[in-house]
Amino acid sequence: MPEPTHDAVPEPGWWLDDPELWVLLAFEGGLNEEGLPIHAHRRSRGFCRSIELAVLLVAEHRQVEDVWLLHEAVYASFDTWGILPHRLLYAAGIERTRRYVATSDHPRQGSVLDELSRITETTDERVEQLLADRRSHYRHLIEEGGRP
């Protein structure tokens, strides 16, 4: 098996040449209440469950036009990109969403098409199951008196 390469990782000189990129490297380490290591990205806006609830409410309506709003939510921050399931972009159906975005003149058409092309391991059934699972999760939290 060949050794992995790190060609996609820029050399240190690349970062040093452009001080505006330095903020992308700004991580702060620390410990949580239990003494476990944590880190936070300074440019992060954080993630709270209310954004996931909002995304789920939009996705539940299965309106293909909402793909732009769902995409904006997924890409709102470093954290939302990493936590929100990108499959939710297909809430209105895989083929229907692909056709809609491909024929749109929306300013973000290219970036949304790129994102949709990277979501390869899903089906309409898996998207539906994801929505059902998240709906159940939040219902249980609310019934137990917890806050999302």
Explain how this protein is built.
The protein is mainly alpha-helical and 148 residues long. The chain has a domain at 49-143. 47% of the residues lie in helices and 7% in strands. It has seven helices and two strands, in the order αββαααααα. It has helices at 12-16, 49-60, 67-74, 78-83, 94-102, 109-118, 124-143; strands at 27-31, 37-41. It has a two-stranded antiparallel ribbon with strand order 1-2. A hairpin with a 5-residue loop joins strand 1 (27-31) and strand 2. Helix 2 crosses helix 7 (124-143). The longest helix has 20 residues, at 124-143. It is flat and about 55 Å long. It starts with 11 loop residues before the first helix and ends in a 5-residue tail after the last helix. Residues 39-44 have low confidence and may be disordered.
Helix content range of the residues, please?
40-55%
Number of helices: 7
The total count of strands amounts to 2
Strand order of the largest sheet: 1-2
General form: flat
| Rg, nearest Å | 19 Å
Task: Report mean pLDDT, rounded to a whole number.
Answer: 78
- The oligomeric status of these chains comes to single chain
Largest sheet, in brief, is: 2 strands, antiparallel
Unreliable spans? 39-44
Q: Provide the succession of SSEs.
A: HEEHHHHHH
Tell me the span between the first and last alpha carbons.
Answer: 46 Å
Q: Beta-sheet strand percentage?
A: 5-15%
Computed structural class: mainly alpha
